[in-house]
Amino acid sequence: MARLNLDHEHIRNQLFKLASLREDERHAVAELIIHLSDVDDWYPEALRRELHKLQSSGTISEADRHAVEKSFFPEHNW
């Protein structure tokens, strides 16, 4: 199973590359991913589950969810 181990700065830098995310969206996604990393639940399925929650709440769009997924796990078969 794919797993990443990224520090907080790398996570923020990776999200900065996604031009479609507004600043508030980028901040919400960064907090989410940093939390997953800190609790060592940094797997594609966990990321997708939590991004779906942000999408359901209207924080990010479906397109942005897909962009984040592909950005962090480009090899994963979504």
Q: Give, in order, the helices and strands.
A: HHHH
Radius of gyration: 11 Å
Alpha-beta classification: mainly alpha
Low-confidence stretches: none
State the total count of DSSP E strands: 0
Shape: globular
Strand-residue fraction? Answer: under 5%
What does this structure look like?
The protein is mostly helical and 78 residues long. Helices cover 63% and strands 0% of the residues. Helix 1 packs antiparallel against helix 2 (23-38), helix 2 (23-38) packs antiparallel against helix 3 (44-56) and helix 3 runs antiparallel to helix 4 (62-72). The chain is globular and about 25 Å long. The model has no long low-confidence stretch (mean pLDDT 90).
List the helices and strands and how they pair.
Layout: H1 8-16, H2 23-38, H3 44-56, H4 62-72
Short summary of the structure?
The protein has helices spanning 8-16, 23-38, 44-56, 62-72.
Main traits of this protein?
single chain, 78 residues, mainly alpha, 4 helices
